Amino acid sequence: MKISWQTYIISGKSIDVRATEYNKDDKGLIGSLYFQWRDLNKSIKYISTRGINLPEAISENAFCLFFENCVRVVKLKKGKCSYDALNIKTGKKIQIKATSIPGDLSSFGPKSEWDELYFLDFSRADGTFDIYKIHPDLIYKHKVNTNQTFEDQQKQGKRPRLSIKEIIRERRILPIKTCSLN
What we know:
Layout: E1 2-10, E2 13-21, H1 26-47, H2 56-65, E3 70-76, E4 85-87, E5 93-99, E6 106-107, E7 116-121, E8 128-134, H3 136-140, H4 150-155, E9 161-162, H5 164-171, E10 177-180
Parallel strand pairs: 5-7
Antiparallel strand pairs: 1-2, 2-3, 3-4, 4-5, 6-9, 7-8, 8-10
Helix pairs in contact: 1-2
């Protein structure tokens, strides 16, 4: 795996992106990092009340490894980037959220934008994870409190927080893919 500057045409515009390039050995690397994180997390929980979140470097790269035309976006040459990956074939900006526990509380920036949202569920803690594709309206129109939707809070410059697993359960959304880092 290496990170390099690449140029892509997205929505008719040329953009320069610092993105991850993958090779055949990367699944083993990400798998190894996942199991190291899992063991460290378990040890920390033994001496503390709270573990450590699954690093985005693991979840975002794991996603891209299983979607052939996706690259993890590390940085844009110009402007700010609020999405995690890019489908270089379709030009879609991808937001990735993940959990390693049975519940979740996902947080989004006030200017977070994406074309597609994927939720990764690593809660089995065995190196496998389910991938769910979540329609944007299910997030933007979701009530985050009794008076406000996700979209309302973003417009106020706040960081909306919500449970994507709750939306998955309520809407009976099925995973589009189950993957393994083993």
